[in-house]
Queue: 2 jobs
Job 1
Amino acid sequence: MGSRVRELVGATPATRDRYVDLLRVASLAAVVLGHWLMAAVTPDGVGNLLAVVPALQPLTWLLQVMPVFFFVGGFSHALSYRSLLRKRPGGPEGPGGPDGSKGSEGSVYSAFLRARLQRLLRPTTVFVLVWGAAALLVQLLGGGGGLTGVTLRMVTQPLWFIGIYLAMVAFTPPLLRLHERYGWGAFAGLAGAAAAVDVLRFAAGAPYVEFLNFAFVWLAVHQLGFLRADGRLRRPALLAGAGLAAACALVAFGPYPLSMVGMPGEKVSNMALPTLALLAHGLWLVGAVELLRAPAARLLERPRVWRTVVAANGVAMTAFLWHLTAMFGVYGALLALDVPLPEPASAAWWAQVPLRIACAAALTAALVAVFRTFERPAPSAPGTGRGPLAASGAPGAGPLAALGATLCLLGVLGLSMVGFNGLLDGRTALLIAIPVSAPAAVAMTLGGWLLVERAGRGRGAR
């Protein structure tokens, strides 16, 4: 891995925005650390430290940094899709087609989906298959109770993030066109739609409408990444101040809770389902990180710092997928060794926190060492073309890729909700009012990935 990191560091162009890479790693690291710290595990189950000590809930306004990751995603997706458009046959930087025509935008879309989803879905698919096989074996042997059952149910919960990110990738081309035409107006339209959903939800009591904010809230944050890619976030202090003021007002006078993460037993959560308050929180976070851009860029000019960021980016998704596995593994080891688990938030519990986090980090590192190879992009097979647009002109590539992405999205979101416990009992969870089981979710994920792969390969595969 060291040689690969040195190769990537050496190939870094002077024009690369290194701060975006730092934000990607830092946001995922903050989520992982937050999960390790907030988990209040006892022999009877898993609680949330923020529910035990409500006075800590304001910390979520600093630690709930998922909006930063989606903001960075918008920036990267805009650059990637535009690059593919330029390089398609007949494009400004691509070769001309045999008849001088340009490659179809559908084939560019399928190539974009495959390239962006590959790094997400390869490690995710391995995670799903390994845990699915382990869960089936445990339950066939009569296990699945106690902490094991809790682990099987909760270990898939971070997959919701993968599902939402898949949607952002899939919607990039049409929303990028809206951005290029309307600029800030496209963001305002999504933010207005999120506000309208909350009005219908809380004032009119309209059923199921709240699920729309999975799209409107997160896609609005994603749209901010497009604006950054075009250099249109010129007043980050104003953005941060307006977002913070709006979030404070919504929490103080609206139906929104203080915590920016979900709390056990809450009737309303800012996170699941996303609310207008979470969007305002995202605005202030984006403004805040943009204010730190200049000093961070100077720091990233140091070779050792940049090497660390590059190395972390190469395994970030694998670490994110497996960090809860590591955490529950540590708690399971403590119980197996008869080490007492103190009452959450007690002095003994706090004293044990550094040891638990250090052990979880070490176990995560071991899991990363085993599974990191699946995060690397798959090499092109011989004879499949010379690059990501070898499939240009493949008929139906765009719709096939869109169908595959939709199935992956539904499968991953469904699995995040139902978990792996109760495999043999037919356990289901509601996904937008539709019951979904773990086997059905796995089948949708794998089937969708195969469709994306087929669309991306196109004629090159034939």
Job 2
Amino acid sequence: MKDIAIIGSGFSSLAAACYLAKYGHKVTIYEKNASVGGRARQLKRDGFTFDIGPTWYWMPDVFERFFSDFDMRPEDYYELIKLNPAYSVYFGEQDSITIEDSLEKICIAFDREEPGSSTKLRKFIKTAQDNYNVAIKDLVYRPGLSPFELITPVTVKKIGQFFSTISREVRKEFDNPRLISILEFPVLFLGAKPSDTPAFYSFMNYADFGLGTFHPKDGMYSVIEGMQQLALDQGVSMKTSSDVEQIIVENNTATGIIINGEEIRCDTVLSGADYHHTESLMQPEHRQYSESYWENRTFAPSALLFYVGFSREIKAVEHHTLFFDVDFAAHATAIYDDPAWPEKPLFYASFPSKTDSNAAPEGKEAGIFLIPLAPGLEDSADLREIYFEKIMTRFERLTNQDAKKYVIFKESFCINDFIDQYNSYRGNAYGLANTLTQTAFLRPRLRSKKVKNLYFTGQLTVPGPGVPPALISGKLVAGLIEKEK
């Protein structure tokens, strides 16, 4: 039995803790903030409840697989509601396309936009489903130790999809720019432009159109609470308000951590905190990756988020609503190519109270607004206010309603908060983008190559950004630790 200290309590850390405790190890989680959850925390104010972090529940089979490893089911911990519609997309004033809860209904919507496109859509989703079966049921459960993990009889046949892009494949089949935007949208969860994302990642389109979009009652934080309970049932100890100041390294071996000046000895250190920050807790000679390495990575976006309480219900929107009424390419350039605050930002809005009565008092509405941003930008209260006015003015025009005058309160979260609360490198929100050169074994390693008994998990390592990959990352690193006991 090993004594294992885990830094951070996000999805990947909680998953790893559950597996390691199941294997018989003594596991303690140390969380910097006052509550568990990492970036998936919760804000409660004046009867409103908001998920601070993730708001989309995709790939339900990954969650089922996680809980089944402990002979449990998601419904043992939280209630899952399938959304219908899954989401809607605005392209202009009172001009939106609704994505419903089945491929059949989506095909009808596509044919309405581009006659005959449903045939092409079915073909595209069939390929996406094949990719999903290869990726999610097999490849992503490999620890990224070797390029040979990616070579199977099936992937050899799909090699071309690793060197083409989502954008290229979508545009081969579809001409309608609105449909193209909808088909390119899911890969944004991978943190990269569709033009930089390998075509193989079309499996995200199957996650969208094939599996559907869900909402856990009481929000995504109920998933954290379920995982926390599972971890406690496995015997995991959890300590909040415990900011790790240093990883103790002796003879090139991790032997403990320091919190508030106190040494806590252990056999293994596993960090689910920001990878760059974790390595900064050691002397430079023990770090695997230099500052120039991190500076040259392609990071997924950061975000400006607003949590808004409205005094009345908001109309003409779904639980999830996307606003693609401006040039996507220009906004993408401001994130990836020439970092700057976008002049005309795309944005996303979530209204959980459309589905969940616990999200807002009766007759009122909870709204979450998100603008993707390049990491590392200047962040100030004035800029946040400017961009709130920008998106709310457009929101009112596009949905043909007054909204600003019904705002009871708003709270914001942006780059400075990601740095302050999560030690996030340059304030990134989603980790490293899943580009071809940052896939699988080309991502930062789960196991340190310089310090023995030091491991990593989460969105900056294998398999990548997103909540389902975080669960998988926790399982992968726990397997490595158990294998090397």
